[in-house]
Amino acid sequence: MTPAVSPADAPRPSGTALRLDGATFAYGHTAALADITVSVEPGQAVALIGPNGAGKSTLLKGVLGLLPLVAGSMEILGEPRSRVDRSAVGYLPQSDDLDPEFPVSLRQVVMMGRYRSIGWFRAPGRADRAAVDAALDAVGLQDRARDRFGTLSGGQQQRGLLARALASEPRLLLLDEPFNGLDQVNRDALIETVMLLKARGVAVLVSTHDLELARQVCDRVLLLNGTQVAYGDRDEVLTLDNVQRTFREVQVELDEHTFVTPGHDGH
Q1: Which residues pair with 129 in a beta bridge?
Q2: Gap between the Cα atoms of 245 and 225, Å rounded
Q3: Distance between CA 59 and CA 15 in Å, rounded?
Q4: Do the beta carbons of residue 167 and residue 135 sit within 8 Å?
Q5: Which pTM was predicted?
């Protein structure tokens, strides 16, 4: 894949991308994830790891403002969540309700990522088209731009949805189990995209159950199980003791490459 803008040419953002201090998020009156304290800098990728119901997706939804912050504090790009430009935060959910039979091209799907900036009733301008081109380049699908979205493979659709998230030119990108079900080709393409985004100064949070993947693309790791178990540099946090404390009832094996844990649904 050839990036539209090389990492060396792209301006690198300054300041902290995300700061949580004792953050607690709730569904209704029930706390779902408690006492999270992290700081994420531009160009860092952070893996969110934990068992079923640990709070990985909850954290991402909390950062998006979809769940209330009931204790602690949160800043995004140095501002309270309510004051942050929505286009500054990109999001790739675990699943999308876009009907693959709907007669829409990949390029049109990616352009949807610009609607928060341009609105639904204004025609896309030159900057919008350039942002979509750059997003398609970043995921390696420029040559499929005119194809109907539903004709793409599952992995290509996932990359197309990532391009939709990138079209808003976010400074903070949230990925919820983005590698689930991908074949090796699409997995490698997605890894390359994440590495490119990091080089451009985008901060990335990745919910994943793949600890080897966390070793490949993430600088830091947040271990979760209803609360924060450990957070810090990848090699310091991904220890057998920490992972066993996170997956409490599960036997966890460790060799020089891989922790073996069960798959889970990323709540």
Answers
A1: none
A2: 9
A3: 21
A4: yes
A5: 0.85
Region of residue 52 (phi > 0: left; psi between -120 and 50: alpha; otherwise: beta)? beta
Class for the domain spanning 18-98+172-260:
alpha beta
The span from the first CA to the last CA of the chain, in angstroms, equals 32
Among 17, 15, 1, 21, which Cα is nearest to 228's?
A: 21
Per-residue pLDDT of 26-58, as tens digits, reads: 998 889 999 999 999 999 999 999 988 899 999
Sign of CA dihedral 134, 13, 84, 17: positive
Which of 123-127, 171-175, 256-260 bottoms out in mean pLDDT, i.e. has the lowest? 256-260
Domain locations in the chain? 18-98+172-260
Summarised one tens digit per residue, pLDDT across range 19-30 is 999 999 999 888
Phi, psi dihedrals of residue 89, rounded to the nearest 5° = -120, 120
Strand 79-80, strand 69-76: pairing = antiparallel
Distances (CA, A) of 122 to 117, 118, 126, 128, 135: 10, 6, 12, 11, 20
- Grouping H, G, I as helix, E, B as strand and the rest as coil, residue 149 is helix
What's the chain's average pLDDT?
A: 86
